[in-house]
Amino acid sequence: MLDGEPLVRWRWLGDHLGYLGDLTADHAVIALVPVLLALLLAVPLGLACARFPRLYQPLAAVFNVVYALPSLAVFVVLIPYTGLATRETVMVPLTCYALAVLLPTTVDGLRAVPEPVRQAATALGYGPWRRLAAVELPASVPYLIGGLRVAAVSSISLAAVGALVGRGGLGYLFVDGFQRTFPTPILAGIVLVALLALATDLLLVAARRVLAPWARGVAR
Amino acid sequence: MNWLGWLHDFFADPAHRSGPDSVVHRVLEHLAFSAEALGLAALVALPLGLLIGYSGRGLFVVTALAGVARALPTLGLVTLAVLLAGVGDAAVLLPLTALAAPPMLVAAAEGVRGTDPDVRDAARGIGLTHPQTLLRVCVPAAAPTLLAGVRTASVQVIATATVAAYVGLGGLGRYVIDGLATRNYPTTVGGALLVVLLAVAVQLLFALLIRLAAPPGARPGPRTRSRRTGGAPTDPAPVKTDPADSPALVKETP
Protein backbone atom coordinates (compact mmCIF):
# COMPACT_ATOMS: atom_id res chain seq x y z
CA MET A 1 0.00 0.00 0.00
CA LEU A 2 1.11 3.54 -0.60
CA ASP A 3 1.36 5.62 2.51
CA GLY A 4 0.77 9.06 1.11
CA GLU A 5 3.22 8.43 -1.73
CA PRO A 6 1.87 10.13 -4.88
CA LEU A 7 1.28 7.91 -7.90
CA VAL A 8 3.75 9.89 -9.98
CA ARG A 9 6.59 12.06 -8.71
CA TRP A 10 7.23 14.24 -11.70
CA ARG A 11 10.49 15.53 -10.22
CA TRP A 12 11.93 12.03 -10.10
CA LEU A 13 11.14 11.63 -13.78
CA GLY A 14 12.78 14.96 -14.59
CA ASP A 15 15.89 14.03 -12.62
CA HIS A 16 16.26 10.63 -14.25
CA LEU A 17 15.68 11.34 -17.94
CA GLY A 18 19.15 10.18 -18.96
CA TYR A 19 18.81 7.03 -16.87
CA LEU A 20 15.42 6.23 -18.40
CA GLY A 21 16.89 6.79 -21.87
CA ASP A 22 19.74 4.37 -21.15
CA LEU A 23 17.34 1.72 -19.90
CA THR A 24 15.12 2.17 -22.95
CA ALA A 25 18.11 1.75 -25.29
CA ASP A 26 19.24 -1.35 -23.40
CA HIS A 27 15.70 -2.72 -23.54
CA ALA A 28 15.48 -2.12 -27.28
CA VAL A 29 18.72 -4.05 -27.87
CA ILE A 30 17.76 -6.95 -25.60
CA ALA A 31 14.28 -7.24 -27.13
CA LEU A 32 14.81 -6.43 -30.80
CA VAL A 33 18.16 -7.98 -31.70
CA PRO A 34 16.62 -11.43 -31.01
CA VAL A 35 13.77 -10.59 -33.39
CA LEU A 36 16.25 -9.70 -36.14
CA LEU A 37 18.20 -12.90 -35.49
CA ALA A 38 14.97 -14.86 -35.62
CA LEU A 39 14.09 -13.24 -38.94
CA LEU A 40 17.49 -14.22 -40.36
CA LEU A 41 16.79 -17.81 -39.27
CA ALA A 42 13.09 -17.86 -40.21
CA VAL A 43 13.53 -16.90 -43.87
CA PRO A 44 15.87 -19.76 -44.87
CA LEU A 45 14.00 -22.21 -42.64
CA GLY A 46 10.68 -21.06 -44.08
CA LEU A 47 11.98 -21.38 -47.63
CA ALA A 48 13.21 -24.88 -46.86
CA CYS A 49 9.82 -25.77 -45.34
CA ALA A 50 7.97 -24.41 -48.35
CA ARG A 51 10.24 -26.39 -50.68
CA PHE A 52 10.14 -29.60 -48.62
CA PRO A 53 6.71 -29.65 -46.92
CA ARG A 54 7.62 -32.72 -44.85
CA LEU A 55 10.01 -30.63 -42.83
CA TYR A 56 7.31 -28.31 -41.60
CA GLN A 57 5.16 -30.56 -39.38
CA PRO A 58 7.91 -31.59 -36.94
CA LEU A 59 9.43 -28.09 -36.87
CA ALA A 60 6.02 -26.52 -36.22
CA ALA A 61 5.38 -28.98 -33.39
CA VAL A 62 8.72 -28.17 -31.78
CA PHE A 63 8.18 -24.43 -31.95
CA ASN A 64 4.64 -24.78 -30.63
CA VAL A 65 6.12 -26.30 -27.49
CA VAL A 66 8.91 -23.72 -27.37
CA TYR A 67 6.31 -20.96 -27.41
CA ALA A 68 4.61 -22.54 -24.41
CA LEU A 69 7.75 -22.40 -22.28
CA PRO A 70 7.47 -19.76 -19.56
CA SER A 71 10.10 -17.09 -20.12
CA LEU A 72 11.11 -16.80 -16.48
CA ALA A 73 11.64 -20.55 -16.25
CA VAL A 74 13.78 -20.58 -19.39
CA PHE A 75 15.87 -17.62 -18.23
CA VAL A 76 16.54 -19.41 -14.97
CA VAL A 77 17.41 -22.69 -16.60
CA LEU A 78 19.88 -20.93 -18.90
CA ILE A 79 21.77 -19.14 -16.13
CA PRO A 80 24.40 -21.86 -15.60
CA TYR A 81 25.27 -21.73 -19.31
CA THR A 82 25.07 -18.03 -20.08
CA GLY A 83 25.62 -16.47 -16.66
CA LEU A 84 23.50 -14.43 -14.28
CA ALA A 85 22.51 -10.94 -15.45
CA THR A 86 24.05 -11.28 -18.92
CA ARG A 87 22.29 -10.20 -22.08
CA GLU A 88 22.58 -13.68 -23.56
CA THR A 89 20.47 -15.24 -20.80
CA VAL A 90 17.56 -13.11 -21.95
CA MET A 91 18.33 -12.86 -25.66
CA VAL A 92 18.66 -16.57 -26.44
CA PRO A 93 15.12 -17.47 -25.28
CA LEU A 94 13.67 -14.34 -26.89
CA THR A 95 15.20 -15.43 -30.21
CA CYS A 96 13.46 -18.78 -29.87
CA TYR A 97 10.11 -17.16 -29.06
CA ALA A 98 10.39 -14.81 -32.02
CA LEU A 99 11.32 -17.70 -34.29
CA ALA A 100 8.28 -19.61 -33.03
CA VAL A 101 6.10 -16.74 -34.26
CA LEU A 102 8.00 -15.99 -37.47
CA LEU A 103 8.43 -19.47 -38.90
CA PRO A 104 4.69 -20.24 -39.24
CA THR A 105 3.96 -16.78 -40.67
CA THR A 106 6.78 -17.14 -43.20
CA VAL A 107 5.52 -20.54 -44.32
CA ASP A 108 1.89 -19.32 -44.39
CA GLY A 109 2.97 -16.36 -46.49
CA LEU A 110 4.87 -18.52 -48.95
CA ARG A 111 1.92 -20.88 -49.24
CA ALA A 112 -0.55 -18.04 -49.75
CA VAL A 113 1.04 -16.99 -53.04
CA PRO A 114 -1.70 -17.45 -55.65
CA GLU A 115 -1.24 -20.45 -57.90
CA PRO A 116 -1.43 -18.38 -61.15
CA VAL A 117 1.49 -16.27 -59.94
CA ARG A 118 3.50 -19.42 -59.32
CA GLN A 119 2.61 -20.83 -62.71
CA ALA A 120 3.44 -17.57 -64.44
CA ALA A 121 6.88 -17.64 -62.84
CA THR A 122 7.38 -21.24 -63.91
CA ALA A 123 6.31 -20.34 -67.43
CA LEU A 124 8.92 -17.58 -67.46
CA GLY A 125 11.54 -20.24 -66.80
CA TYR A 126 12.06 -19.89 -63.06
CA GLY A 127 13.27 -23.03 -61.30
CA PRO A 128 11.76 -23.97 -57.94
CA TRP A 129 14.47 -22.32 -55.81
CA ARG A 130 14.74 -19.17 -57.88
CA ARG A 131 10.96 -18.87 -57.96
CA LEU A 132 10.83 -19.16 -54.17
CA ALA A 133 13.45 -16.48 -53.64
CA ALA A 134 12.51 -14.07 -56.42
CA VAL A 135 8.72 -14.37 -56.60
CA GLU A 136 7.20 -16.10 -53.61
CA LEU A 137 9.35 -14.53 -50.92
CA PRO A 138 8.67 -10.91 -52.02
CA ALA A 139 4.99 -11.77 -52.41
CA SER A 140 4.88 -12.95 -48.81
CA VAL A 141 6.38 -9.76 -47.36
CA PRO A 142 3.02 -8.59 -45.91
CA TYR A 143 2.74 -11.87 -43.97
CA LEU A 144 6.34 -11.64 -42.80
CA ILE A 145 5.81 -8.13 -41.54
CA GLY A 146 2.59 -9.19 -39.85
CA GLY A 147 4.59 -11.87 -38.03
CA LEU A 148 7.36 -9.42 -37.23
CA ARG A 149 4.87 -7.05 -35.63
CA VAL A 150 3.58 -9.76 -33.29
CA ALA A 151 7.07 -11.06 -32.56
CA ALA A 152 8.57 -7.63 -31.88
CA VAL A 153 5.80 -6.43 -29.61
CA SER A 154 5.76 -9.66 -27.57
CA SER A 155 9.53 -9.63 -27.36
CA ILE A 156 9.55 -6.08 -26.00
CA SER A 157 6.99 -7.03 -23.39
CA LEU A 158 8.72 -10.32 -22.47
CA ALA A 159 12.18 -8.79 -22.16
CA ALA A 160 11.01 -6.96 -19.03
CA VAL A 161 10.73 -10.29 -17.20
CA GLY A 162 14.50 -10.57 -17.61
CA ALA A 163 14.76 -8.10 -14.74
CA LEU A 164 14.05 -11.00 -12.36
CA VAL A 165 17.31 -12.64 -13.47
CA GLY A 166 19.15 -9.34 -13.41
CA ARG A 167 18.97 -8.11 -17.00
CA GLY A 168 15.66 -6.77 -18.19
CA GLY A 169 16.21 -3.24 -19.48
CA LEU A 170 13.14 -1.28 -18.48
CA GLY A 171 11.98 -4.25 -16.40
CA TYR A 172 14.50 -3.13 -13.79
CA LEU A 173 12.18 -0.20 -13.06
CA PHE A 174 9.45 -2.63 -11.95
CA VAL A 175 11.77 -4.47 -9.56
CA ASP A 176 13.22 -1.22 -8.26
CA GLY A 177 9.84 0.46 -7.77
CA PHE A 178 8.38 -2.61 -6.10
CA GLN A 179 11.26 -3.00 -3.67
CA ARG A 180 11.04 0.66 -2.65
CA THR A 181 7.22 0.86 -2.69
CA PHE A 182 7.68 3.64 -5.21
CA PRO A 183 5.14 3.60 -8.06
CA THR A 184 6.73 6.29 -10.22
CA PRO A 185 9.40 4.08 -11.84
CA ILE A 186 6.87 1.29 -12.37
CA LEU A 187 4.50 3.58 -14.21
CA ALA A 188 7.38 5.08 -16.18
CA GLY A 189 8.48 1.55 -17.11
CA ILE A 190 5.03 0.50 -18.28
CA VAL A 191 4.62 3.64 -20.37
CA LEU A 192 8.11 3.37 -21.88
CA VAL A 193 7.67 -0.34 -22.74
CA ALA A 194 4.35 0.45 -24.41
CA LEU A 195 5.86 3.42 -26.28
CA LEU A 196 8.81 1.33 -27.46
CA ALA A 197 6.38 -1.32 -28.69
CA LEU A 198 4.22 1.28 -30.41
CA ALA A 199 7.22 2.92 -32.11
CA THR A 200 8.49 -0.47 -33.33
CA ASP A 201 5.05 -1.38 -34.60
CA LEU A 202 4.65 1.89 -36.51
CA LEU A 203 8.12 1.42 -38.00
CA LEU A 204 7.13 -2.03 -39.25
CA VAL A 205 3.88 -0.71 -40.72
CA ALA A 206 5.91 1.96 -42.52
CA ALA A 207 8.28 -0.75 -43.75
CA ARG A 208 5.35 -2.67 -45.17
CA ARG A 209 4.10 0.42 -46.99
CA VAL A 210 7.50 0.75 -48.63
CA LEU A 211 8.27 -2.91 -49.28
CA ALA A 212 4.78 -4.10 -50.16
CA PRO A 213 2.78 -1.12 -51.40
CA TRP A 214 0.17 -3.45 -52.93
CA ALA A 215 -0.87 -4.65 -49.47
CA ARG A 216 -2.18 -1.27 -48.39
CA GLY A 217 -5.26 -1.41 -46.26
CA VAL A 218 -5.03 -5.15 -45.84
CA ALA A 219 -3.73 -4.93 -42.31
CA ARG A 220 -5.49 -3.80 -39.21
CA MET B 1 25.73 -29.82 -15.50
CA ASN B 2 24.26 -32.03 -12.82
CA TRP B 3 20.68 -31.55 -13.84
CA LEU B 4 19.47 -34.87 -12.63
CA GLY B 5 21.14 -34.28 -9.28
CA TRP B 6 19.28 -30.99 -8.88
CA LEU B 7 15.98 -32.52 -9.80
CA HIS B 8 16.63 -35.37 -7.40
CA ASP B 9 17.40 -32.89 -4.60
CA PHE B 10 14.25 -30.98 -5.44
CA PHE B 11 11.89 -33.90 -5.38
CA ALA B 12 13.63 -35.63 -2.47
CA ASP B 13 13.24 -32.58 -0.21
CA PRO B 14 10.61 -33.52 2.41
CA ALA B 15 9.24 -29.95 2.33
CA HIS B 16 8.28 -30.58 -1.30
CA ARG B 17 6.51 -33.82 -0.44
CA SER B 18 3.81 -32.54 1.90
CA GLY B 19 2.63 -29.34 3.53
CA PRO B 20 2.15 -25.83 2.13
CA ASP B 21 5.35 -25.96 0.05
CA SER B 22 4.65 -29.37 -1.45
CA VAL B 23 4.66 -29.83 -5.19
CA VAL B 24 1.01 -30.87 -5.28
CA HIS B 25 -0.09 -27.85 -3.28
CA ARG B 26 1.93 -25.43 -5.43
CA VAL B 27 0.62 -26.94 -8.66
CA LEU B 28 -2.96 -26.63 -7.40
CA GLU B 29 -2.38 -23.01 -6.34
CA HIS B 30 -0.89 -22.27 -9.73
CA LEU B 31 -3.78 -23.88 -11.56
CA ALA B 32 -6.32 -22.18 -9.29
CA PHE B 33 -5.39 -18.62 -10.04
CA SER B 34 -4.65 -19.37 -13.67
CA ALA B 35 -8.16 -20.81 -13.97
CA GLU B 36 -9.70 -17.82 -12.16
CA ALA B 37 -8.01 -15.39 -14.53
CA LEU B 38 -8.96 -17.45 -17.58
CA GLY B 39 -12.56 -17.81 -16.44
CA LEU B 40 -12.90 -14.11 -15.84
CA ALA B 41 -11.33 -13.31 -19.21
CA ALA B 42 -13.55 -15.83 -21.01
CA LEU B 43 -16.64 -14.38 -19.38
CA VAL B 44 -15.84 -10.95 -20.79
CA ALA B 45 -13.97 -11.70 -24.00
CA LEU B 46 -15.85 -14.61 -25.57
CA PRO B 47 -19.39 -13.13 -25.75
CA LEU B 48 -17.98 -9.80 -26.88
CA GLY B 49 -15.80 -11.49 -29.51
CA LEU B 50 -18.71 -13.57 -30.82
CA LEU B 51 -20.90 -10.49 -31.18
CA ILE B 52 -18.17 -8.49 -32.87
CA GLY B 53 -17.35 -11.34 -35.22
CA TYR B 54 -20.99 -11.89 -36.10
CA SER B 55 -21.86 -8.26 -36.69
CA GLY B 56 -18.52 -7.54 -38.35
CA ARG B 57 -18.42 -4.23 -36.52
CA GLY B 58 -15.54 -3.14 -34.36
CA LEU B 59 -13.04 -5.68 -35.71
CA PHE B 60 -10.52 -2.92 -36.15
CA VAL B 61 -10.90 -1.88 -32.53
CA VAL B 62 -10.45 -5.48 -31.37
CA THR B 63 -7.21 -6.01 -33.24
CA ALA B 64 -5.83 -2.64 -32.18
CA LEU B 65 -6.74 -3.38 -28.57
CA ALA B 66 -5.12 -6.80 -28.74
CA GLY B 67 -1.95 -5.19 -30.03
CA VAL B 68 -1.85 -2.70 -27.18
CA ALA B 69 -2.55 -5.39 -24.60
CA ARG B 70 0.27 -7.52 -25.98
CA ALA B 71 2.68 -4.66 -25.34
CA LEU B 72 1.80 -4.28 -21.66
CA PRO B 73 4.45 -5.88 -19.45
CA THR B 74 2.76 -8.17 -16.93
CA LEU B 75 5.55 -7.78 -14.39
CA GLY B 76 4.94 -4.02 -14.38
CA LEU B 77 1.18 -4.42 -14.04
CA VAL B 78 1.53 -6.93 -11.21
CA THR B 79 4.00 -4.84 -9.21
CA LEU B 80 1.91 -1.72 -9.71
CA ALA B 81 -1.30 -3.51 -8.72
CA VAL B 82 0.34 -4.78 -5.53
CA LEU B 83 1.55 -1.31 -4.59
CA LEU B 84 -1.91 0.11 -5.19
CA ALA B 85 -4.11 -2.66 -3.80
CA GLY B 86 -1.83 -4.61 -1.49
CA VAL B 87 -0.75 -8.24 -1.76
CA GLY B 88 -3.78 -10.28 -2.65
CA ASP B 89 -5.36 -12.38 -5.31
CA ALA B 90 -6.87 -9.36 -7.06
CA ALA B 91 -3.44 -7.84 -7.65
CA VAL B 92 -2.44 -10.83 -9.76
CA LEU B 93 -5.85 -11.74 -11.09
CA LEU B 94 -6.42 -8.48 -12.95
CA PRO B 95 -3.11 -8.36 -14.84
CA LEU B 96 -3.46 -12.03 -15.77
CA THR B 97 -7.02 -11.42 -16.97
CA ALA B 98 -5.76 -8.54 -19.07
CA LEU B 99 -3.23 -10.95 -20.55
CA ALA B 100 -5.78 -13.68 -21.28
CA ALA B 101 -8.59 -11.60 -22.75
CA PRO B 102 -7.06 -10.37 -26.04
CA PRO B 103 -6.25 -13.76 -27.61
CA MET B 104 -9.74 -15.01 -26.72
CA LEU B 105 -11.40 -11.87 -28.05
CA VAL B 106 -9.51 -12.03 -31.35
CA ALA B 107 -10.08 -15.78 -31.76
CA ALA B 108 -13.82 -15.50 -31.09
CA ALA B 109 -14.21 -12.59 -33.51
CA GLU B 110 -12.04 -14.16 -36.21
CA GLY B 111 -13.61 -17.58 -35.80
CA VAL B 112 -17.17 -16.39 -36.22
CA ARG B 113 -16.16 -14.00 -38.95
CA GLY B 114 -14.53 -16.87 -40.80
CA THR B 115 -17.72 -18.95 -41.07
CA ASP B 116 -18.69 -19.59 -44.65
CA PRO B 117 -21.15 -16.81 -45.62
CA ASP B 118 -23.15 -19.32 -47.68
CA VAL B 119 -23.64 -21.48 -44.61
CA ARG B 120 -24.81 -18.48 -42.68
CA ASP B 121 -27.22 -17.47 -45.42
CA ALA B 122 -28.54 -21.02 -45.52
CA ALA B 123 -29.15 -20.93 -41.77
CA ARG B 124 -31.04 -17.66 -42.12
CA GLY B 125 -32.88 -19.07 -45.12
CA ILE B 126 -34.30 -22.04 -43.22
CA GLY B 127 -35.71 -19.59 -40.69
CA LEU B 128 -33.16 -19.38 -37.89
CA THR B 129 -33.06 -16.06 -36.09
CA HIS B 130 -29.80 -14.18 -35.72
CA PRO B 131 -29.08 -15.47 -32.19
CA GLN B 132 -29.87 -19.01 -33.35
CA THR B 133 -27.59 -18.65 -36.36
CA LEU B 134 -24.79 -17.41 -34.16
CA LEU B 135 -25.14 -20.09 -31.47
CA ARG B 136 -26.10 -23.12 -33.55
CA VAL B 137 -24.16 -22.51 -36.73
CA CYS B 138 -21.34 -20.04 -36.27
CA VAL B 139 -20.15 -21.12 -32.84
CA PRO B 140 -19.79 -24.84 -33.68
CA ALA B 141 -18.06 -23.94 -36.93
CA ALA B 142 -15.74 -21.58 -35.10
CA ALA B 143 -15.09 -23.97 -32.21
CA PRO B 144 -11.59 -25.04 -33.27
CA THR B 145 -10.46 -21.43 -33.77
CA LEU B 146 -12.11 -20.45 -30.52
CA LEU B 147 -10.40 -23.23 -28.60
CA ALA B 148 -7.08 -22.37 -30.18
CA GLY B 149 -7.53 -18.85 -28.81
CA VAL B 150 -8.35 -20.19 -25.37
CA ARG B 151 -5.27 -22.42 -25.63
CA THR B 152 -3.01 -19.48 -26.43
CA ALA B 153 -4.47 -17.57 -23.50
CA SER B 154 -4.15 -20.54 -21.12
CA VAL B 155 -0.54 -21.23 -21.98
CA GLN B 156 0.36 -17.57 -21.63
CA VAL B 157 -1.41 -17.26 -18.30
CA ILE B 158 0.15 -20.42 -16.85
CA ALA B 159 3.58 -19.29 -17.97
CA THR B 160 3.13 -15.76 -16.68
CA ALA B 161 1.49 -16.73 -13.38
CA THR B 162 5.05 -17.60 -12.31
CA VAL B 163 5.58 -13.87 -11.87
CA ALA B 164 2.94 -13.83 -9.11
CA ALA B 165 5.47 -15.31 -6.71
CA TYR B 166 7.62 -12.25 -7.09
CA VAL B 167 5.05 -10.17 -5.23
CA GLY B 168 4.60 -12.76 -2.53
CA LEU B 169 1.85 -15.04 -3.81
CA GLY B 170 2.01 -18.80 -4.18
CA GLY B 171 2.07 -21.08 -7.16
CA LEU B 172 5.02 -22.66 -8.89
CA GLY B 173 6.77 -19.34 -9.23
CA ARG B 174 7.43 -19.60 -5.47
CA TYR B 175 10.11 -22.23 -6.15
CA VAL B 176 11.70 -20.23 -8.95
CA ILE B 177 11.80 -16.94 -7.03
CA ASP B 178 12.72 -18.42 -3.63
CA GLY B 179 15.42 -20.54 -5.20
CA LEU B 180 16.88 -17.50 -6.95
CA ALA B 181 16.74 -15.43 -3.76
CA THR B 182 18.48 -18.06 -1.64
CA ARG B 183 20.81 -19.30 -4.41
CA ASN B 184 19.23 -22.70 -3.98
CA TYR B 185 19.56 -23.90 -7.52
CA PRO B 186 17.75 -27.24 -7.28
CA THR B 187 14.59 -25.45 -6.08
CA THR B 188 14.68 -22.97 -8.94
CA VAL B 189 15.30 -25.58 -11.61
CA GLY B 190 12.67 -27.90 -10.17
CA GLY B 191 10.09 -25.11 -10.17
CA ALA B 192 10.98 -24.03 -13.69
CA LEU B 193 10.69 -27.57 -14.95
CA LEU B 194 7.28 -27.99 -13.30
CA VAL B 195 5.97 -24.83 -15.00
CA VAL B 196 7.26 -26.06 -18.34
CA LEU B 197 5.60 -29.46 -17.83
CA LEU B 198 2.33 -27.82 -16.80
CA ALA B 199 2.33 -25.51 -19.83
CA VAL B 200 3.10 -28.37 -22.22
CA ALA B 201 0.44 -30.57 -20.61
CA VAL B 202 -2.18 -27.86 -21.04
CA GLN B 203 -1.14 -27.38 -24.64
CA LEU B 204 -1.49 -31.10 -25.37
CA LEU B 205 -4.88 -31.14 -23.64
CA PHE B 206 -6.06 -28.37 -25.92
CA ALA B 207 -4.64 -30.08 -29.01
CA LEU B 208 -6.89 -33.01 -28.11
CA LEU B 209 -9.90 -30.78 -27.37
CA ILE B 210 -9.47 -28.95 -30.66
CA ARG B 211 -9.52 -32.22 -32.57
CA LEU B 212 -12.66 -33.31 -30.74
CA ALA B 213 -14.36 -29.96 -31.25
CA ALA B 214 -13.98 -29.97 -35.01
CA PRO B 215 -17.29 -30.75 -36.69
CA PRO B 216 -17.33 -34.48 -37.61
CA GLY B 217 -17.12 -33.74 -41.31
CA ALA B 218 -14.00 -31.65 -40.87
CA ARG B 219 -12.22 -34.05 -38.54
CA PRO B 220 -9.02 -35.54 -39.87
CA GLY B 221 -10.33 -39.10 -39.90
CA PRO B 222 -8.80 -42.04 -41.76
CA ARG B 223 -10.58 -41.10 -44.97
CA THR B 224 -9.73 -37.47 -45.14
CA ARG B 225 -6.10 -37.89 -44.18
CA SER B 226 -4.01 -36.68 -47.00
CA ARG B 227 -1.27 -38.92 -48.24
CA ARG B 228 1.13 -36.02 -48.44
CA THR B 229 1.32 -35.43 -44.69
CA GLY B 230 1.46 -39.13 -43.97
CA GLY B 231 -1.70 -38.93 -41.92
CA ALA B 232 -0.14 -36.75 -39.27
CA PRO B 233 -2.82 -35.04 -37.24
CA THR B 234 -2.89 -31.44 -38.26
CA ASP B 235 -4.02 -28.50 -36.19
CA PRO B 236 -7.27 -27.70 -37.96
CA ALA B 237 -7.34 -24.02 -37.21
CA PRO B 238 -4.22 -22.36 -35.95
CA VAL B 239 -4.88 -18.94 -34.50
CA LYS B 240 -4.04 -16.35 -37.06
CA THR B 241 -1.23 -14.33 -35.66
CA ASP B 242 -2.18 -11.49 -37.94
CA PRO B 243 -5.69 -10.70 -39.11
CA ALA B 244 -4.15 -9.84 -42.48
CA ASP B 245 -3.87 -13.62 -42.87
CA SER B 246 -7.61 -13.97 -42.91
CA PRO B 247 -8.84 -14.23 -46.49
CA ALA B 248 -12.15 -12.63 -45.52
CA LEU B 249 -10.35 -9.53 -44.29
CA VAL B 250 -8.07 -9.35 -47.28
CA LYS B 251 -11.06 -9.20 -49.54
CA GLU B 252 -13.32 -6.86 -47.66
CA THR B 253 -11.34 -4.12 -46.00
CA PRO B 254 -11.29 -0.92 -48.02
From TrEMBL, chain A:
Gene3D superfamilies: MetI-like. CDD domains: TM_PBP2. InterPro entries: ABC_transp_perm/SBD (IPR051204), MetI-like (IPR000515), MetI-like_sf (IPR035906). The chain crosses the membrane at residues 28-50, 62-84, 90-110, 150-174, 186-207. It is found in: Cell membrane; Membrane. Belongs to the binding-protein-dependent transport system permease family. This is ABC transporter permease subunit. It comes from Kitasatospora saccharophila.
From TrEMBL, chain B:
It is a multi-pass membrane protein. Belongs to the binding-protein-dependent transport system permease family. The keyword Transmembrane helix applies. It comes from Kitasatospora saccharophila. Residues 27-206 form the ABC transmembrane type-1 domain. Pfam families: BPD_transp_1. It is found in: Cell membrane; Membrane. This is ABC transmembrane type-1 domain-containing protein. Keywords: Membrane, Transmembrane, Transmembrane helix, Transport. Gene3D superfamilies: MetI-like (1.10.3720.10). Its main location: membrane. The keyword Transport applies. InterPro entries: ABC_transp_perm/SBD (IPR051204), MetI-like (IPR000515), MetI-like_sf (IPR035906). PROSITE patterns: ABC_TM1 (PS50928). The chain crosses the membrane at residues 31-52, 157-177, 189-210. Residues 216-254 are annotated as: Disordered.
